[in-house]
């Protein structure tokens, strides 16, 4: 088992190795009233691109009580279009304003020829795309003056002419760009089912030194006459299979900041807090076994 | 065929063909289709997940910005509107707050919405609401602050008032805030709304984190619009007088302070050009 001291992990200085929850507008008031005992909060960076109003009002108040992590969905790092420097500059302003403990983006692309599909799209893992991602991640880190984490996406198709597995791609990207890895355990599970691989072997191949955060979310199954696909819908409780995979990941990685993500059909805040408690309990068990 | 003999797409070519395939299911290129591992499901079935995700998330974004339009036209028709909008005015930004700025023009251009002549104005009102909701915060000042500034009477004309940035002025031939409230409030089938009660000038504003609609007369609307544009007091007054020769400047101005619309003031650079031909205004009331 590999336990690293916290200071060896990328920039996770202020995000504790405990469970956090995603902060969404629907929960602003109840979060502010109840201030539940969760370790930290994560927000979608772009939700704060506006200059004022309730989103900033509540994030400022809650930031005084919780460490906060920024999770970007719009930088389109995998795209071959030029990086939107205005987008990057706004993230930098928000970092100055809120001092997030972690900053993450996705191993995906969203735009080409100036058109945004605002989705996390897949691309072939090749030498060309690896070099491209390394350059884009390095540029992002240079502008933000912070290292970022790159998250493994949920995918619904893969490509014939790949030169790397996703784990090799992520490990090499992290090593060569100085970025960390945000390991989304639900995405691993969804991809394993959609593409037919062993999710436990995927977790075992990820370079533990680079994993600074874990995501947990719910998925749904779309059934067809000739098969089915799991969809990363973020509108469900975390499934039992994903909890088992998470336990395996924590056994291997040690306690890591772990986020409960729920974006659609949000339940009451207490449901998210219960999920966070379950993740914390798993990390506590692993700590106890290691002691 | 060995890998080196295949014509491998560059990452850019791949992304361009992927985008074409998402926007038009009939245009999936053979090169892209050959690249996709089927693993039990055909490539088109897998691409469909991305097509549906894109349409669903952009439609959700439009629904969040235009809730009254959704209520007025119904969910199914709105989905059709959203689809047309996504195709005709695709998103150009990773920040979805900017998506939907031309929705009123699409609504205006469709024959299907001709029976709802106010609908484009409702869309404009909702876009204004969305922009104002996220606009930067500022602190209103009171009339006292102006009095304390010791501005010489001959400089009054050249005062430029700083309008609260969380503000947008909208004018319509229809009672748009009534229609908006009627649509947003939970449906009660017995309700009726008379849309022929005349037009409305409205300032969509956020004050102290509360969204509000301030109703304005025609002259006041032109006056406020001029203030928002950053014109001098003389120019704002002239704009009001164009609509109503009896325009009551001191009343209109004090209203703006009372409604917490003024956040500061400064003197325009070249006041002389304006002061000679415009009336002087008594601000010390």
General description of the model:
- The complex is a heterodimer of chains A (291) and B (285).
- By secondary structure, chain A is an alpha/beta fold.
- Chain A has one domain (6-290): TIM Barrel (Alpha-Beta Barrel).
- Helix content of chain A is 40%, strand content 20%.
- Chain A has nine helices and 13 strands.
- In chain A, the strands form three sheets. An eight-stranded parallel β-barrel of chain A has the order 1-2-3-4-7-9-10-13, surrounded by four helices. A two-stranded antiparallel sheet of chain A has the order 5-6. A two-stranded antiparallel ribbon of chain A has the order 11-12.
- In chain A, α3 links the parallel β3 and β4.
- In chain A, α1 runs parallel beside α2 (54-63) and α4 (127-144) packs across α5.
- Chain A is globular and about 50 Å long.
- The termini of chain A are close together.
- With 285 residues, chain B is of the alpha+beta class.
- Chain B has a domain at 136-285.
- Chain B is 48% helix and 12% strand.
- A three-stranded antiparallel beta sheet of chain B has the order 3-4-5. A two-stranded antiparallel ribbon of chain B has the order 2-6.
- In chain B, β4 (200-207) and β5 form a beta hairpin.
- The longest helix of chain B has 23 residues, at 43-65.
- Chain B starts with 10 loop residues before the first helix and ends in a 10-residue tail after the last helix.
- Mean pLDDT of chain B is 90; it is low at 1-5 and 271-285.
- The interface between A and B is large, with 52 and 49 residues.
- β8 of chain A pairs antiparallel with β1 (36-37) of chain B, so a sheet runs across the interface.
